[in-house]
Design goal:
The complex is a heterodimer of chains A (114) and B (114). Chain A contains no helices and ten strands. Chain A is mostly beta strands and 114 residues long. In chain A, the strands form two sheets. In chain A, strands 2, 4, 5, 8, 9 and 10 form a six-stranded mixed beta sheet that branches. In chain A, strands 1-3-7-6 form a four-stranded antiparallel beta sheet, with no helix packed on it. In chain B, strands 2, 5, 6, 10, 11 and 12 form a six-stranded mixed beta sheet that branches. A four-stranded antiparallel beta sheet of chain B has the order 3-9-8-7, with no helix packed on it. In chain B, strands 1-4 form a two-stranded antiparallel ribbon. The chains are: A mainly beta (114), B mainly beta (114). Chains A and B meet through β4, β5 and β9 of A and β6, β10 and β11 of B.
């Protein structure tokens, strides 16, 4: 079946603007994760959703960042009032369930804030 | 605080050389451990994982890793690398109970010379 998809693949925005990044997980996967990948920084956990449980938002770096997952499927990561330090690749992953199951990663969205 | 450390940031090897990439974790309680790989231009994908049982786990493409609880380590090994193993390798951990957020290391860039 289809893998995890993300859109847009690239986004250039001006400092101070809001952006929305979209993730379509693999059908049937109940867990969905967002990460930020900056050069030399590895993958930084942002948030994860597991079924209908309250999401774990402990990795969101500031209140400018928020995410939602509608109907247990598609997820949107929103960054308000973007800053230059928000420039990074934002990765989404899904898995059958949170825990020991393999995560399947999407191609990422490269965000550049000018 | 939970953390995953990868001490080798860049590794250069010749084909047929043996590989060992270090990974140390700091995690309260039981932990699940993973190695992911990102080949140039491709998505992150799972190499192998450990969550219980035999501490020596085998993954795809001839890779293996050994969980040594007393050393809080999960080093990745391959007896003979190939040019096609050129990639970035990430060690990751999540808790076996409670939150399943993943903590990733900063990654190791491996370059194999033909």
């Amino acid at each position: 079946g289809a893998g995890v998809s993300q859109s847009p693949s690239n986004k250039v925005t001006e400092k101070g603007k809001d952006v929305e990044l979209r993730c379509d997980p693999i059908s049937g996967h109940t867990a969905l994760y967002w990460y930020r990948q900056s050069l030399g920084q590895g993958l930084e956990f942002l948030i994860y959703f597991q079924g209908n449980s309250a999401p774990d938002k402990s990795g969101l770096p500031s209140d400018r960042f928020s995410a939602e997952r509608t109907g247990g499927s598609v997820s949107t990561l929103t960054i308000q009032r973007t800053q230059q330090e928000d420039s990074a690749v934002y990765l989404c992953a899904s898995s059958r369930e949170a825990g020991t199951y393999e995560q399947y990663f999407g191609p990422g969205t490269r965000l550049t804030v000018t | 605080a939970q953390s995953v450390s990868q001490h080798n940031h860049h590794v250069i090897l010749s084909e047929a050389a043996s590989l060992e990439l270090g990974c140390n974790y700091s995690y309260g309680g039981t932990v699940n451990l993973f190695w992911y790989v990102q080949y140039p231009g491709q998505h992150l994908q799972l190499l192998l994982k450990y969550f219980s049982g035999d501490p020596l786990v085998k993954g795809i493409k001839g890779f293996e890793a050994e969980f040594i609880k007393s050393k809080f380590s999960f080093n990745l090994r391959k007896p003979s690398v190939q040019w096609s193993d050129t990639a970035e390798y990430f060690c990751a951990a999540n808790g076996a109970s409670g939150t399943y957020k993943y903590i990733f290391g900063t990654g190791t860039r491996l370059k194999v010379l033909a």
